[in-house]
Amino acid sequence: IDEVINIIRSSYDDAKERGFDSIVLAIETDTEQTYSINDTEDGFQCDEFDYYFQDLDSIAETLFRNCAKINLHFHPLTITFWV
Predict the structure, then answer these.
(1) Dihedral of the CA atoms 61, 5, 34, 49 (nearest 10)?
(2) What DSSP string describes 28-48?
(3) What global pTM score does this model have?
């Protein structure tokens, strides 16, 4: 799980370093399901949840654990960011 969180955080940090202020991280799974983590004024948000997270690590871990419960696996190398 730490590896996935580090990859998500690294992708986000890369987008911030490039100067983007509206970031959406797209995370693909082995079933071609894509989850998006949005950086909003209210915090980090994912359509999978009805609430916001205050930090990226918390939302990444929660999404990872929820996917693991239904036997989905992330393809960390396919994490991309949209602006």
Answers:
(1) 30
(2) EBTTS-EEEEEEETTEEEETT
(3) 0.80
